[in-house]
Automatic annotation (TrEMBL), chain A:
It holds the Pfam family SpoIIM. It comes from the Bacteria. PANTHER family: SLR1478 PROTEIN (PTHR35337:SF1). InterPro entries: SpoIIM-like. The lineage of its organism: Bacteria, Pseudomonadati, Pseudomonadota, Alphaproteobacteria, Micropepsales. Keywords: Membrane, Transmembrane, Transmembrane helix. This is Stage II sporulation protein M. The chain crosses the membrane at residues 109-132, 186-208, 215-236, 242-262, 274-295, 307-327.
UniProtKB/TrEMBL annotation, chain B:
It comes from Rhizomicrobium electricum. Its main location: membrane. Keywords: Membrane, Transmembrane, Transmembrane helix. Residues 24-175 form the RDD domain. InterPro entries: RDD. This is RDD family protein. It is a multi-pass membrane protein. The chain crosses the membrane at residues 32-55, 67-85, 143-162. It is found in: Membrane. It holds the Pfam family RDD.
């Protein structure tokens, strides 16, 4: 019982392996502070080996050592190394390229049922808003909150309404307008997606309401014989924007549907899968809304010819539908 | 081996070692979030002031560009602050880093960008919607509806408190959870610090205590609080019947080393003496 304490086996174990642990720690420090590029070749080759030796050290220490601080140190080291070794992801640019070339169109395609339902809801909203407002202009004020209309109301003169459609703007102020529209719409779209978690009902409401106000406005303009011009004014960016909103709603529906009917898997697993699928769509939705913001804020203000507006609307429709439903580059077999 | 508690989860690596991850408590998650909110707010104020300064320097000719930058910057900061930091190598926002937390996929796979986006998009539901409801003005007729709405929001806000894994809705949807992954420094082995005059103990004296007591003693010796050490030393001397005389710290260090050696050698023979009641 009177040997020197240095002969503790657990202490010798520590003395022998300590250098490796320190080396691994240095590599991890570099990687975690985003200096992955500063690693030398020999360090990159050493990393998995050091990781495995840290794991075996941890098992060993748990079995033979009662030095609590050593065990928690090794446990932290092994955990950090695990995430460093197994968490390695593709380069960001590569990931972005893959997202556009494959993940996004394939996921949107896979969501076609939800998309159809969301689209039908918006369309139903437009129809309802249009028919109700045509039957009795009073409905208009139930569909559109005060202050949002800027005088585009049932009582307005034809000249005024025409002016709202074809007002010429200089280039100044347009970028501002576009940026406001984009950030507002993106916020709403993300909200519509998140509300999908509440079984999808608030999402359905948001989509329908969106349609209602559009339909009500259309009725007002159509009443003055400006229906065709109004649609040009809306569709030049609306094809992109409404499509994005519909996709956001579809992503929300996927969430809500999975929450209620998880299918064969457990609810947690099914929900996690649905959430990530929906998130891919949503990242794309933000991109689409950015395009829509540019079209609405800039292109619409500069192009005041109804035919040209329809032309651009048709072009965007072809681009988006082609990309999502006809482009086969990214579609996985059976997706 | 740390005491298994209600928040420890098995996490077996492909090499077959259980990393025994410890989930973050709801309070830690909340603290981390508040720190992030403060950082975002400060960044927003600084960003605004910087843009104002530039606009002023250019005699307000660039005012529109500055406003556009502001709108886009505010949007990016609000929506992508969390996404940006969580998809980095540390998988944690500055608030989480301060608390030693990180975001991890529950199935152990690499944390993907869509998962990070999903878990943060859900913040709209957890934070923004409740604030919206609280900010809205209620009249008498709507009061009942408002209360119902608040209860409804409460379900989302307090979600993490009501499940075993402390998942918020974003975690559920993304398949993630938040765990402790602190950076620890290696502390010196205190068994190597006892020196000078040899203090020896008999087998009977060392048989009194177990692993749990050894861990407590290790903590005491690392903190080095003289009062605590005196009390602990007195307690141990009385318990094992050891005469007074040695300085407290030297006595405790020697006892720690001897006890650890004793318990570790029994460990090698397959006997793990958990605590002093374990015979």
């Amino acid at each position: 019982m009177n040997e020197a304490p240095l002969t503790l086996k657990s202490h010798r174990f520590r003395m022998e392996r300590e250098a490796d642990w320190r080396r691994l720690e240095e590599i991890l420090d570099l990687v975690e502070t985003g200096k992955r590029r500063e690693l030398t070749d020999s360090e990159i080759i050493a990393l998995p080996v050091l990781y495995r030796s840290a794991l075996s050290s941890l098992s060993m220490a748990r079995a033979i050592s009662l030095d609590q601080s050593l065990i928690s140190y090794l446990s932290s080291l092994a955990t950090r190394a695990y995430f460093c070794v197994y968490g390695t992801r593709m380069h960001l640019m590569h990931r972005i390229a893959r997202f556009f070339a494959r993940d996004w169109p394939a996921t949107v395609f896979g969501l076609w049922r939800e998309t159809a339902v969301a689209g039908a809801l918006v369309l139903a909203g437009v129809l309802a808003g249009f028919l109700f407002t045509q039957a009795s202009p009073d409905w208009f004020y139930s569909f559109l909150p005060d202050g949002m209309t800027q005088g585009r109301e049932p009582g307005a003169t034809t000249a005024y309404l025409r002016q709202t459609l074809f007002e010429q703007h200089g280039p100044s102020g347009l970028a501002f307008f576009a940026s406001i529209l984009f950030s507002h719409n993106a916020q709403i779209a993300i909200l519509a997606f998140a509300l999908g978690f509440a079984c999808g009902l608030p999402t359905a409401y948001l989509l329908f309401e969106n349609g209602l106000s559009l339909g009500a406005l259309l009725a007002v303009y159509a009443d003055h014989g400006l229906g065709v011009d109004f649609m040009g004014w809306i569709l030049i960016h609306g094809v992109t924007e409404l499509f994005a909103v519909i996709l956001a709603g579809a992503a929300g529906f996927r969430l809500g549907w999975t929450l209620v009917f998880p299918g064969e898997e457990t609810r947690a697993v099914a929900l996690a899968r649905a959430g990530r699928t929906a998130a891919v769509v949503m990242i794309g939705v933000v991109v689409m809304l950015f395009c829509a913001g540019l079209l609405e804020g800039i292109a619409r203000q500069l192009i005041t010819n109804t035919l040209a507006r329809y032309g651009i609307a048709a072009l965007t429709a072809v681009v988006w539908f082609g990309f999502f439903y006809a482009y086969r580059g990214g579609r996985r077999v059976g997706a | 081996m740390s005491e298994p508690n209600a928040l420890t989860r098995p996490f077996v690596t492909p090499e077959g070692v259980d990393l025994e991850l410890e989930l973050a408590a709801a309070s830690e998650r909340m603290t981390a979030f508040l720190i992030d909110v403060v950082i975002i707010t400060v960044a927003m104020v600084a960003f605004t002031l910087a843009l104002l300064f530039v606009a002023r320097l250019t005699g307000f000719r660039s005012a529109e560009a500055m406003v556009v930058l502001w709108v886009l910057g505010a949007f990016v900061l609000r929506c992508f602050y969390f996404v940006f930091f969580e998809q980095s190598a540390r998988a944690a926002t500055p608030g989480k880093r301060l608390l030693g937390l990180r975001v991890v996929m529950r199935d152990g796979s690499p944390l993907s960008l869509d998962a990070v986006f999903a878990r943060n998009a859900m913040r709209e539901l957890e934070i923004f919607v409740p604030i919206l409801f609280m900010a809205s003005q209620a009249n008498q007729v709507q009061a009942a509806a408002e209360i119902a709405a608040l209860v409804w929001c409460g379900v989302f806000v307090f979600f993490p408190v009501f499940n075993r894994d402390r998942l918020r809705i974003g975690d559920m949807v993304a398949g993630t959870w938040v765990v402790h992954a602190p950076k620890r420094v290696m502390e010196p082995d205190i068994a190597s610090q006892s020196g000078g005059r040899a203090i020896t103990f008999t087998r009977e004296q060392l048989d009194v205590y177990g692993i749990k007591e050894l861990a407590v003693l290790e903590e005491v010796l690392r903190k080095r609080d003289p009062d605590v050490m005196r009390a602990v030393a007195a307690r141990i001397r009385a318990k094992i019947g050891y005469p007074d005389g040695d300085p407290d710290e030297a006595f405790l260090l020697a006892f720690y080393a001897a006890l650890r050696k004793h318990l570790e050698s029994r460990l090698l023979l397959g006997k793990r003496k958990r605590d002093k009641y374990d015979r």
